[in-house]
TrEMBL record:
GO terms for cellular component: membrane. Residues 32-451 form the Amino acid transporter transmembrane domain. Keywords: Amino-acid transport, Membrane, Transmembrane, Transmembrane helix, Transport. The chain crosses the membrane at residues 38-57, 63-80, 119-140, 160-177, 184-210, 263-284, 304-325, 368-385, 391-409, 430-451. This is Amino acid transporter transmembrane domain-containing protein. It comes from the Eukaryota. Residues 1-30 are annotated as: Disordered. GO terms for biological process: amino acid transport. InterPro entries: AA_transpt_TM (IPR013057). Pfam families: Aa_trans. Its main location: membrane.
Length: 462
């Protein structure tokens, strides 16, 4: 949940009784996060690439089941997020600056499992965003081609150059120290999110189609395809709500947990309305043939400039969102290295370098090498496995249960000392068990989809 700040920067803290203008009462950097910035961060994280797959997800599940599952995910996310917000401070009143800190505080040795789930999900999300951004860039070029040559033209465009271009941009951005301070970037990204989601909804409203129970067995898909794609659709929906990893630098007054609960309610409510509109309107537009990405798979051809603009908004949003999810992993590795080798100049020393057009910049060799290597790795993986829906579904399934459900619920039980086998304890354990089953089914469905995609795929071909 976002009431924890260190996903952006473990050194950031809230503004309490400061010992200096820029320092908080515990000697850490003063925090300036507000309800508005927290809400913007949540919207930036939530309305992302996941929204593009919701028309396809609704097509697999149908109006009723699809909408019900979306709302259910929203309710579960909000409920467990309030639990997580209340765990920001430990029983002794000390602050937990990272997700791992709060797990360590309440659950002890399970912290290693939370770290594996957290950082694995962050890596997977950055790969997914790289794939999505390249698809949108390809769509811009295709839209122009279809406009010039006709909708039936063969406009084949490889996405590998665009994946590489996106990677180059992220290499540059990843070198910015104190990236967490660029709160305006989240606001810009949130505006981009609203823009392309609204355009998609508007284009879909213009098309009339029918559908009640989703894809039809024997007509659109086989029985087994219907089952696996339905499970994969649930994984896509889980991914579309994956923001438990995104934390914020909130002030200490009003209390962080109260502000985060309000921000979470505002963020989830807003995004759920957009999700239902995008999913249902996209399904209404395309019916049971809804594409995996409803802005890039060309159900909409005209007006081509509007399709271009929507995809450009997606790219701008994902450029920022990539850093929101990558920065905590960067910081985690760098902090570990600094702790292990505090005297090593390669790791700790900052160098001032004059860069053309940018002036003096601070360069750290560890940051330069490690972050560049990370971006290159995620870029290469995205090139090898550019499968939008299957990747999103797998990431969503893998991250949803441990980070959004299991750890928050277990910490809540520990914090509130919920009596074992009481009605509340049984209800919470039942919630955890049901969500585990849903996540496993979603993961299986996504893996089946990934296997089917790999069978017909030739790497580094159009």
């Amino acid at each position: 949940m976002k009431s924890f700040d260190a996903v952006h920067n473990p050194s950031a803290v809230e503004s309490g009784d400061a010992t200096g203008n820029n320092v908080d009462d515990d000697g850490r950097e003063k925090r300036t996060g507000t309800l508005m910035t927290a809400s913007a961060h949540i919207i930036t994280a939530v309305i992302g690439s996941g929204v593009l797959s919701l028309a396809w997800a609704i097509a697999q599940l149908g109006w009723v089941a699809g909408t019900l599952i979306l709302v259910t995910f929203a309710v579960i996310n909000y409920y467990t997020s309030t639990m997580l917000a209340d765990c920001y401070r430990s029983d002794e009143g000390t602050r937990n600056y990272t997700y791992m800190d709060v797990v360590r505080s309440y659950l002890g040795m399970k912290v290693q499992l939370s770290g594996l789930a957290q950082y694995g999900s962050l890596v997977g999300t950055t790969i997914g965003y790289t794939i999505t951004a390249s698809i949108s860039l390809v769509a811009i070029k295709k839209a122009n081609c279809f406009h010039d040559k006709g909708h039936g033209a063969k406009c084949s465009v490889p996405n590998y150059p665009f994946i590489a271009a996106f990677g180059i941009v992220e290499v540059v951005l990843s070198q910015i120290p104190n990236f967490h301070k660029l709160s305006w970037l989240s606001i810009v990204a949130a505006v981009m999110s609203f823009s392309y989601a609204s355009i998609g909804i508007g284009l879909a409203i213009a098309v009339v189609a029918n559908g009640v129970t989703g894809t039809v067995v024997g007509v659109d898909v086989t029985a087994s395809d219907k089952i696996w794609k339905s499970f994969q659709a649930i994984g896509d929906m889980a991914f579309s709500y994956s923001f438990s990893l995104v934390l914020d630098t909130l002030r200490s007054t009003p209390p962080e947990n109260k502000v985060m609960k309000k921000a979470t309610l505002a963020g989830i409510s807003t995004t759920t309305v957009f999700y239902i509109l995008c999913g249902c309107m996209g399904y209404a537009a395309f019916g049971n043939r809804a594409p995996g990405d409803f802005l890039t798979d060309f159900g909409f051809y005209e007006p081509f400039w509007l399709v271009d603009f929507a995809n450009a908004c997606i790219v701008v949003h994902l450029i920022a969102a990539y850093q929101v999810f990558a920065q905590p992993f960067f910081q985690f590795v760098e902090d570990k290295c600094i702790k292990a080798w505090p005297e090593n100049n390669f790791i700790t020393k900052e160098h001032s370098v004059n860069i053309l057009f940018l002036g003096k910049c601070r360069i750290n060799y560890l940051r330069l090498v490690w972050r560049t290597a990370y971006v290159v790795l995620t870029t290469v993986v995205a090139m090898i496995f550019p499968f939008f829906n299957s990747i999103l579904g797998l990431i969503g399934a893998a991250a949803f249960w441990p980070l959004t459900v299991y750890f928050p619920v277990e910490m809540h039980i520990s914090q509130r000392k919920v009596k074992k086998y009481s009605m509340r304890w049984i209800a919470l354990k039942l919630l955890v068990s049901v969500c585990l089953i849903v996540s496993l089914l979603a993961a299986i469905g996504s893996i089946v989809g990934l296997i089917n995609s790999v069978k017909a795929y030739k790497p580094f071909h159009s």
